[in-house]
Amino acid sequence: LKMSWFWFYLPLRLLMAACLCRSIKDPTTSSQQSFKTDLFNFYHSLILADGKETTVHLLKDIPRRYYFVLEEGRAFAPFTITVTPCDVPIEWSILVHKASTSFLGKAARGDHDTQEVSKSQKASSTVSTIFNYKGNSVETYMGMSSHSALYMLEFLSTERDTHITVYLTTDTTSGHLYPELPTDPRIDVIGIGHTTVTLTWKHSPSVLQHRENIQYCLLVNEKHNYKSLCAAETAIRSSGMKLPPTLALSLSPYLLEPQQVMILSNSELSIINRVSSGEVRQICMGTKNTYTVPSLSPSTQYYFDVFVVNLLTNASAAYTGTFARTLEEPEPKVTELKDGKVIQVVLDGKKQKFHSLQYQARHKKIQFTFQLCHGQVRVHITKNGKTVASENISGLRYFSLKGKLLDTYLVQLRSTEETNSSVKVQVSPHFHKPLFPLLPESLKIKSFSKLRTCNSVTIAWLGTQEESKYCVYKKKIEEDQVWMELRSADRCSGPESRHRSEKVLCKYFYDINLQRAVTTETIKGLDAGTLYLFDVYLFGPSGIPVRYHSKVVKTRKRC
């Protein structure tokens, strides 16, 4: 770094004057005392604190300089300086100024002219650069200081505004602010699966000595490795997210942003930050040095960083990061569909995987039938690799398709909810006898509030132009059971799953005029002020039932 002698000696002279001002015990006037106090306070802001981590904010292309000197009686004491870039690479240097005692005295007293100072500087002092570094790694300099030397640290960012942390200590007997790393700080990948990666690393000496105050935290992301926890937190914040302090990972759940999810299980705290470049996971696992990262995406490259964190000081040290690519997801098993045969598929909502069905057409016109039994299902149909249908289904859904003989159809089914879903599927030639009954325009059941009594209710439902059998069932339920009963209802199950006592009646009806294809039924013998769940089942020629949407009605309490 380029630096003129002027910039070094101007703060030096005033700094030495400030230091001597501290030792003047009997000022002659109040104005002298005020001047010395103001001078000391101004230049004290440039002095690097001993034994404390200092955050330094850097503006692009503008150097920042800090100084430190030894206290009296600490000649030739060891010292260490640790600099942690929190974002982009920076340049930093340590310069030392050595001057004779007589020169320091003159500089402090001010009893000299400019020419004398210039000659004295050249004859009695030297400036040398003892260390310089450029990059974004955490670097530590260890040296031996002298009471007759003044040190200056200069920092420069040439890419953009950023911030760093600087830690100076001259006390090597009271332990370390930063946890220690092992002699081999690498992270080893010992297992890779489709959705998991297993990591291990050597224990930090700090964990072995101060187990209750130290823990490991793991950072997982899809972008790159981070050389410090400070750099990782800065990157996450720059994505527009407010990040909790590092200690939130290990001590208590701070308030999280909407883009963050916190998971606490088996004494492990995980925070998932959803950023534009993917998820960034932070997992703190105590003092375990082997960990299997779960719930990863197949065939994806991930970067892993381990930090050993001192819970008392919030300081951390970074292991050498690593990366691994999860295995490719195996091709899903494909189930062959046969003409006219009905299969029921149960879909795992947690894994969100597609279930694939394949059919080779033996006719030019075919029809796919889907009956949703439970949950929510997405259907995607391709013909010879090209999409012909894709939508979420509800109730009963038909797809009539035209093509050529031996066309290959692939049906992919996926649950759109986190809970399991199930669906019945049938494919058949267009002229094939329909498996499911002809459906009315709506499968809703209507109740008439004015016709409710203490022991009866009246319901109605739509029919079709085809004579069909309808069976009505009832069931007593409690207020707190309504949501669960409606939510968990299996719309593919028939009356065989119901208790005999729940059956009310069965009847046949139809009407050529759809406007009049409506039937009503009054169910008697009910209890007053009681909730009932009513179901209607429609049976077609094949005997396979279709269940109307359940209806909850409460009888009057007083009549």
From TrEMBL:
<dbReference type="InterPro" id="IPR055271">
    <property type="entry name" value="NDNF_Fn(III)_1"/>
</dbReference>
<dbReference type="InterPro" id="IPR056225">
    <property type="entry name" value="NDNF_N"/>
</dbReference>
<protein>
    <recommendedName>
        <fullName>Protein NDNF</fullName>
    </recommendedName>
</protein>
<dbReference type="InterPro" id="IPR019326">
    <property type="entry name" value="NDNF"/>
</dbReference>
<dbReference type="InterPro" id="IPR036116">
    <property type="entry name" value="FN3_sf"/>
</dbReference>
<dbReference type="GO" id="GO:0008201">
    <property type="term" value="F:heparin binding"/>
</dbReference>
<keyword id="KW-0677">Repeat</keyword>
<dbReference type="InterPro" id="IPR045805">
    <property type="entry name" value="NDNF_C"/>
</dbReference>
<dbReference type="GO" id="GO:0007399">
    <property type="term" value="P:nervous system development"/>
</dbReference>
<dbReference type="InterPro" id="IPR013783">
    <property type="entry name" value="Ig-like_fold"/>
</dbReference>
<dbReference type="Pfam" id="PF10179">
    <property type="entry name" value="NDNF"/>
</dbReference>
<keyword id="KW-0732">Signal</keyword>
<keyword id="KW-0964">Secreted</keyword>
<comment type="function">
    <text>Secretory protein that plays a role in various cellular processes. Acts as a chemorepellent acting on gonadotropin-releasing hormone (GnRH) expressing neurons regulating their migration to the hypothalamus. Also promotes neuron migration, growth and survival as well as neurite outgrowth and is involved in the development of the olfactory system. May also act through the regulation of growth factors activity and downstream signaling. Also regulates extracellular matrix assembly and cell adhesiveness.</text>
</comment>
<dbReference type="Pfam" id="PF24354">
    <property type="entry name" value="NDNF_N"/>
</dbReference>
<feature type="signal peptide">
    <location>
        <begin position="1"/>
        <end position="17"/>
    </location>
</feature>
<feature type="domain" description="Fibronectin type-III">
    <location>
        <begin position="437"/>
        <end position="545"/>
    </location>
</feature>
<dbReference type="InterPro" id="IPR003961">
    <property type="entry name" value="FN3_dom"/>
</dbReference>
<dbReference type="GO" id="GO:0005576">
    <property type="term" value="C:extracellular region"/>
</dbReference>
<keyword id="KW-0524">Neurogenesis</keyword>
<feature type="domain" description="Fibronectin type-III">
    <location>
        <begin position="179"/>
        <end position="316"/>
    </location>
</feature>
<dbReference type="Pfam" id="PF19433">
    <property type="entry name" value="NDNF_C"/>
</dbReference>
<keyword id="KW-0325">Glycoprotein</keyword>
